[in-house]
Amino acid sequence: MQRKIIKHGATTILAALAMGAAGSSAWAGGALDIDFDADNFDGSMSWITNLHWPLTPSSGAQTFTYVGGNDDECVVNKIYVDSEEIKDDFVGDYEDIIAQVVLDQEWLVELEEGEECNVFTPVGPENLTERTFDWYAQDVFWNVWYMGEHSRSFEDGCPGPEVADEDVEDEECFEGSWEAGQYGPEMEIIAAPGIVVPSDYPSGGELIEPGTYYMQEVAEGAEDMAKILKVNSPLSVEDGVEPGDYDNCRKVKEWNPFEHGQSVEHKWYCLGGNGLVLIQGIGGGPTENEVLVEITSD
Hints:
With about 300 residues, the chain is mostly beta strands. About 5% of the residues lie in helices and about 40% in strands. It contains 1 helix and 14 strands, in the order αββββββββββββββ.
């Protein structure tokens, strides 16, 4: 059965550009000209091995901890990857796709006078603000596709983590959740995969260049875009897993076109094994940095 992706307003245009509009050129700084093709997933790439964002525990699990904030607040973000956690129950055109499950949690800690924001900042259920299970799948060209997420907020009146998901009545507490292949009331597809991290050679051909942009989330209520600003760029950080200089990084701008500049981030993906090492929030105020400060293995 032929199905169409239903989008609203400008997102229809953005999705068409990012998912392969005729005549576009990724290599000259245009829309990334690559379609999702189930034949490009051979079942052997359930772990994420993209050199700019490797999430590859051969066994056990890894936790990537990011820390940022100011004199009053500390943001702690932990990304947890378990080698055995996969999702393989997508529907429709995506039923054969195997995705890596990544648990992303964020805490907001109010600091007392004299306290510092660092890897030792204590976190607990009382200051957990969001918990998301992200689903990523990698194709044979090493592009990382975003297959969806189950996201839950613990702010704005939403109950805390002691309340099970099935007992939460307010749907807004799960705002932004979506799954590739999700159907609408008239059997139209309202969610499709986007690319979260392209490889250096997204279709096995020419090298990707600055200016290339692409859709990361293609779903109602979750429309994020990204644009590559720099490639092979140096980066210097004072704190983190490897304080000092990185030689080969990709700088990416990520934003939601419907939030009018209020949710803009610059992300630095660096070669050498650490992947995403710096997140800079630049929308709606001063720049806020979150730095990768620790990688631990279970």
